[in-house]
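User: Can you recover a sequence for this backbone? Please restate the input before giving your answer.

Assistant: Of course. Working from this structure:
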C-alpha cells in the first residue's frame, strides 16, 4: 500500500515538473516570437521607433516600384513634403533612374536589404551582413551616398541582425504608426487608420508599391496638417544623419 502511494506521489511530482517545464518553455517561445515580430520591443536589436520632435516622418518601404513610386513622388513634390524611401537593393539596380529621382528631389534613400528574402532574418550572420552590404553598395553606385538607415524587412529581427547592422555601420529604423496599407481595401480605410493613431513624433510606415497608398497619400498629408503637425525628413525627426560622411 505504501509503495502504491509513493508511486502515486512520484508520478504526480514528475507530472508537475513536466507541466512547469512545458509552461516555462511556452512562455519563453512566446517572448522570443514577440521580440522577433515586434520591432518596437527592441528585444534583439535597438531600433529607433519614434521621433524626438513634435513633427512626423513619412517612410515608404519595398520600392522602387515603376508604377507607383513615380506617382508618390509627384504627390510629395506637389505637397512640398520630404520622405524616406527604404529601397530593396535588387529593385534599386533594376530601376536606378527612380532611385536617382528620389535623391534628386530631396528625399532620403535608405537600406531595406538587397534580397528582401522572407527568411533573411534567419540567414547565417555572414550572409545577412553581405545582404545588407550589397544593398548599400547598390545605392551608393546610383547616388554616390552610403545609407546609414536600415529597416529590417517585415519588421522581423533576430540576434544575427545585431552584428550585421554594426558591421555595416547602420542604424535600425522601426516605426510608431503602422498604417497596414498592405491590407487596406480602400483609401478611406487607410486614411482613417492614420488619423485615428496619429501622434507627434510618429514615424509612419507606408509602402510605395500600392495603388491604395497613392490614392490616400494626398488626404493623409492634408489631415496631418489639420492636426497642426509638420511632416519633416526622418533625419530631422530623429536627429540622426542619413548618410555616411564621404
Amino acid at each position: 500500500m505504501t509503495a502504491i502511494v509513493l508511486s502515486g506521489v512520484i508520478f504526480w511530482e514528475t507530472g508537475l515538473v513536466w507541466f512547469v517545464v512545458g509552461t516555462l518553455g511556452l512562455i519563453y517561445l512566446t517572448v522570443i516570437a514577440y521580440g522577433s515580430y515586434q520591432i518596437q520591443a527592441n528585444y534583439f536589436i535597438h531600433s529607433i521607433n519614434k521621433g524626438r520632435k513634435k513633427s512626423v516622418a513619412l517612410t515608404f518601404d519595398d520600392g522602387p516600384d515603376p508604377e507607383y513610386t513615380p506617382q508618390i513622388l509627384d504627390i510629395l513634390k506637389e505637397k512640398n513634403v520630404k520622405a524616406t524611401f527604404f529601397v530593396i537593393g535588387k529593385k534599386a539596380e533594376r530601376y536606378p533612374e527612380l532611385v536617382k529621382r528620389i535623391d534628386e528631389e530631396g528625399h532620403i534613400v535608405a537600406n531595406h536589404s538587397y534580397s528582401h528574402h522572407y527568411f533573411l532574418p534567419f540567414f547565417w550572420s555572414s550572409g545577412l551582413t553581405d545582404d545588407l552590404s550589397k544593398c548599400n553598395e547598390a545605392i551608393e553606385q546610383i547616388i554616390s551616398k552610403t545609407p546609414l538607415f536600415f529597416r529590417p524587412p517585415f519588421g522581423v529581427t533576430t540576434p544575427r541582425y545585431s552584428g550585421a547592422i554594426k558591421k555595416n555601420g547602420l542604424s535600425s529604423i522601426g516605426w510608431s504608426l503602422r498604417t497596414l496599407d498592405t491590407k487596406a481595401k480602400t483609401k478611406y480605410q487607410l486614411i482613417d487608420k492614420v488619423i485615428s493613431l496619429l501622434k507627434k513624433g510618429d514615424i509612419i510606415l507606408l509602402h510605395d508599391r500600392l495603388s491604395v497608398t497613392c490614392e490616400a497619400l494626398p488626404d493623409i498629408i492634408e489631415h496631418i496638417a489639420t492636426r497642426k503637425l509638420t511632416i519633416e525628413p526622418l533625419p530631422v525627426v530623429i536627429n540622426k544623419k542619413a548618410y555616411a560622411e564621404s
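That completes the design. The first helix runs from residue 2 to 37.
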